[in-house]
Specification:
alpha+beta, Phosphorylase Kinase, domain 1, Aminoglycoside 3'-phosphotransferase, Chain: A, domain 2, 2 domains, five-stranded antiparallel β-sheet, three-stranded antiparallel β-sheet, 36% helix, 11% strand
Amino acid sequence: MAEGYAPASGPIHVGLSVDFTNPTIPVREGEGIDASRVEPFLKEKIPGLEGAMSVRQFPAGASNLTYLVVFDNRELVLRRPPHGTKAKSAHDMSREFRVLSGVRKAYPHVPEVLLYTDDESIIGSEFYITERVVGNLILRDFPPEWGFGVEDCRRFCLSFIDRLIELHQVDYRAIGLKNLGKPEGYATRQILGWNKRYVNARTDDAPDCAVIRKWLEERIPSESGGCIIHGDFRIDNLIVDAEDPFNIVAVLDWEMATLGDPLMDLGNSLAYWIQADDTPGLLSLRKQPSNAAGMLTRDEMAAYYADRTGTQIGNFDFYLVYGVFRLVVILQQIYYRYYHGQTKDERFALMIDQVRELEKRCLEIIG
């Protein structure tokens, strides 16, 4: 292990407990599900459910829609695709269900999946059901009640990156996921694919990103190995133990999981990693406490990953630009749905500003 990166030993906070911080909201307008159809279906498929069903919505996330489904004796989570036009092959619930079912065999930090259906007569789309994982969801900042100091933040940061490393070391063949993707040629497919998706999703008010797209195509690296990659590994996609915030009990949002280059997955993760010395524009986009005193920088995270895995990382700028540009495309695809009136979610109106800010970030790294 690299000098200076040894995780702290023993619990820093003994018996730490705060209120469950994964709140739900009333279902947003236009995103409701018909309980009169869902309730009998679930009671038929999942024995033992008791009482009338109620539904609320998890507010986080800008892609697939996630609902809390509550019975008298059990809480479940329902996940479905977004409304409106969707990118080809995106939001495949059957695939996500298969990924979770397989990954859980060797990587216990995922929700238990219970059922999947492609019967669109129930809610108008396919969907799947998991058990609810109870714990704390960390959003923009660590809860002040935790009283995190520099060493606590550092210890949490190492727990975060260690969970990603643990995933990358899973033997995907042994858990029946060898057909999840094609590791060979992954980098080329990703760069060409995201470049094309951006062009297809571009709106009149969006930058063309031509310099970035060309720069990436000219620098596609040789493969650095194949593994299961999450594709969206960030702090606000984690559930931590309510009694021990350093214990990450569940990793959520597996819709982008595939087999591919682990360094590109690291680049995806660090694209979200806004650190304390970043520009005010970048800091305004922060959605996780990656800037807290004690959290590693992007360069330190990459060095720690390389040391723990024995991976040789050449020019990490390529992987970081790729990760940031991929985020540009994701935001632009979501904004495209809002721009064309396919969703009424007002959160998406400002995504064009985020696209512009992250385009600037890519150009700064390139420069």
